[in-house]
Every structure is written in structure tokens, then in C-alpha cells.
Amino acid sequence: MATPNQTVKSEFGSKEALVDKLVPLLDRKADESDAAFRERLLHVSNAKLLRLWQREQSLRSKHGSRESLVDKIVELRAGGQKADADYRKKILGLSTGRLLSLHDGFARGAKKA
User: Fold this and answer.
1) What's the pLDDT tens digit per position in 15-51?
2) Are the C-beta atoms of residues 83 and 74 closer than 8 Å to each other?
3) Number of separate domains in the chain
4) What is the model's pTM?
5) Domain around 100
């Protein structure tokens, strides 16, 4: 099994290349510039960067965007009822990982019903 460092080097060439791919995909603080965000990501472990990359790829391939994922969550939660705008507004602030987890939970619940 390859270490995270080996995986980063084999798939992306370097940690800097992976960070450059992640910067436009990830949400950041409102007042943080791209350069400051990039610098902050360079101090994150390779394992965490790989998890972030896999999470973003999963989001893009299965749902397209965060907004469409949020729409699907609200739809699954409503269960055919009127969609809840307040709930949608609330979950828009959640992390991508949390949104994916919410979607998986609601999808499992819908399959059981």
C-alpha cells in the first residue's frame, strides 16, 4: 500500500500541484485571498489533501455542484412535500463532506420507505 506522499507524487507530481488543483474547488474564508488559502493548504497533510480531492471529485461526478446536491437533499428530506427554503438556506453553509453524508443518509432512508 502506497503512503499518502507516494500517492501524491505519483498522481499529481507534487504537493504543490495537488494544492493548485484544490484551490479553485474548495470554499474558503470570505476575506481570504487565493494566495493565502494556497499557503494554508500547503501546511495540510497529504492524507487530508487526498481526502479533500476525492470528496470534491465525488461531488462533481455524482451531483455536479454543491447547489444541486443541496437541492437533492432538500427534495429527499421533503419526501414529496413542499421544499423547505429555510432548511436549504441552513445547509448551504455546511461543509461538502457533511452534505454528502446527509445525502447518503436521506437516500438510505428513502430506499427503506
Assistant:
1) 999 999 999 998 888 898 989 999 999 999 999 999 9
2) yes
3) 2
4) 0.81
5) 66-112
